[in-house]
Design goal:
Helix content is about 55%, strand content about 15%. With about 500 residues, the protein is an alpha+beta fold. It folds into 3 domains: about 160 residues, PAS domain (Beta-Lactamase, 2-Layer Sandwich), CATH 3.30.450.20; about 90 residues, Helix Hairpins (Orthogonal Bundle); about 150 residues, Histidine kinase-like ATPase, C-terminal domain (Heat Shock Protein 90), CATH 3.30.565. The strands form 3 sheets. The protein has a 5-stranded antiparallel β-sheet with strand order 2-1-5-4-3, with helices on both faces. The chain has a 5-stranded mixed β-sheet with strand order 7-9-10-12-11. A hairpin with a 5-residue loop joins strand 1 and strand 2.
């Protein structure tokens, strides 16, 4: 069964339970409620009679009370009597045989003066009918002047109750039926409104599964489904970016593998075409050097992929020991000096005197410096400038910062953070680099190494003017001091 059908059935069931439950509970309490209303109405009628009698006594107009009693007897169905008796029994209005029998002739005409309190009693007449008698004292100048009476046949009251209950029940049934029908329509509409965007999401997911990564879901809602659609669209964009990244990575990997493998294969084939004693020593040496360079390049590429995988898995191993970052930076700089000279790049290194020995993995940090300097060399044009700075950071931060500044092509601001993502390079930078393009893993590895040491890495760049990459390493920590001291003793 589809979600829409299940949701509609559940909504209909829920509405039915609510409507039927409400109707049933209302009907269950309806008769007592109607009885209470009728009782309250009878007491109100008695109160009105009492007030009219009080006005009649004050104005000494017996006709006023008599006419009101007469109007009650004519207008109220089921009324047995309405009467007033004063304290002296000299004035009796509305007297009839039922009144005398129900109230009692002695009390009504000859008995003791009635009290002012409201009273209710049920009396059985000689003919078997029951009368509900209500009575209340009538006051004149803050003293009892008499008593007002209302009597109702109990069977008439019950018939009125049953009639009223039947009418209200009919109304409840009609309203409940209408509510049930409206609930059915609303449930169906709600089910359609809720499942329609879900169907769109399902269709979008299927489209993405079919490779249509530019799929976007058009759902303009402010609720959770709208948020889900928004996140779905963001996911689709990211999947498309990852797909493009995958294609770029495959292309880069293919190039990084094919170029050295082609060189190795070609020169190995060249060396095996002739007997060893017939090979030209100079050409043989050149071929072997190229094979060695290609092998080194392949080894570095494989190591980079392994390092990136270790960093992502959180398994990068750091072997800390006493480490002189200034000396290491100068050593790496000297290795690049012939390349700088060949490209006519003005390069220099500036070191702050007295930099302390820190606790770090020397080989890993050397790898970071080499990577930053290699990038600077690749993207700096001929006759450009490259400068390495190595110094302490200002207080209160206790760190050493190493900066590699170049006058290369620079990086646009919106592309800068992409450089620290795996297999990504700033758009357009490959076009200005001759030779191996790289795979976009170097800065990812550098970031992982620096952060594993508790440092930070970043860059500052102005497009068209150059870039400065930097990283920091902490100087002081209790563990670091112990490592440095242990290295010094060794």
């Amino acid at each position: 069964m589809k979600l829409r059908a299940r949701l509609a059935l559940f909504s209909i069931f829920l509405v039915s339970i609510i409507v039927l439950g409400t109707s049933t509970s209302t009907l269950y309490f309806l008769e007592p409620l109607v009885l209470e209303i009728i009782e309250s109405n009878n007491v109100t009628l008695l109160g009105n009679l009492r007030k009219v009698c009080e006005e009649s006594l004050i104005s000494r107009d017996d006709i006023l009370a008599f006419k009101y009693i007469e109007s009650l007897e004519k207008s109220i169905k089921g009324l047995s009597y309405a009467a007033f008796v004063d304290n002296q029994r000299s004035l009796v209005l509305g007297e009839n045989p039922t009144f005398a029998e129900a109230v009692g002739e002695k009390e009504a005409l000859l008995g003791k003066p009635p009290t002012a309190a409201l009273e209710r009693q049920v009396t059985t007449l000689a003919n078997g009918r029951k009368v509900i008698n209500y009575s209340e004292g009538v006051a004149l100048r803050q003293s009892n002047a008499g008593r007002a009476y209302l009597g109702f046949y109990e069977d008439e009251v019950q018939r009125n109750i049953q009639k009223l209950v039947a009418e209200i029940t009919q109304i409840i049934v009609v309203v409940a039926g209408g509510a049930l029908f409206a609930g059915l329509i609303i449930s169906l509409v709600f089910a359609v409104q809720l499942t329609r965007p879900i169907n769109k999401l399902a269709e979008g997911a299927q489209a993405i599964g079919d490779g249509k990564l530019d799929t976007q879901i058009d759902i303009d809602r402010k609720d959770e489904i709208g948020l889900l659609a928004k996140e779905f669209n963001i996911m689709a964009v990211k999947l498309k970016e990852l797909d493009e990244l995958k294609d770029s990575f495959v292309s880069s990997v293919s190039h990084e593998l094919r170029s050295p493998l082609t060189a190795i294969s070609g020169y190995v084939e060249l060396l095996t075409m002739k007997p060893v004693n017939e090979l030209n020593p100079e050409k043989t040496t050149k071929a072997l050097n190229i094979i060695q360079e290609s092998t080194t390049r392949l080894t570095k590429f494989v190591n980079d992929i392994l390092d990136a995988a270790k960093i992502k898995a959180g398994k990068m191993e750091i072997q800390k020991a006493g480490f002189d970052i200034a000396a290491t930076a100068e050593s790496v700089f000297n290795l690049f000096q012939p390349l700088f000279d060949k490209k006519k790049i003005t390069a220099r290194i500036e070191k702050e005197e007295g930099l302390p020995i820190i606790a770090a993995d020397g080989e890993k940090i050397r790898q970071v410096i080499t990577n930053l300097l290699s990038n600077a060399f690749k993207f700096t044009p001929e006759e450009g400038k490259i400068t390495i700075f190595c110094r302490k950071t200002p207080a209160p931060e206790q760190s050493i910062i190493l900066q590699v500044r170049d006058t290369g092509v620079g990086i646009k601001k919106e592309h800068q953070m992409l450089l620290f993502n795996r297999f990504q390079q700033a758009p357009g930078t490959k076009d200005v680099v001759s030779g191996p393009k790289g795979t976009g893993l170097g800065l990812v590895i550098a970031k992982g190494i620096v952060e594993a040491h508790g440092g930070r890495i970043g860059l500052e760049s102005e497009y068209g003017k150059g870039t400065t990459f930097y990283f920091t390493l902490p100087i002081q920590s209790e563990t670091g001091k112990k490592i440095v001291e242990a290295s010094a003793l060794a």
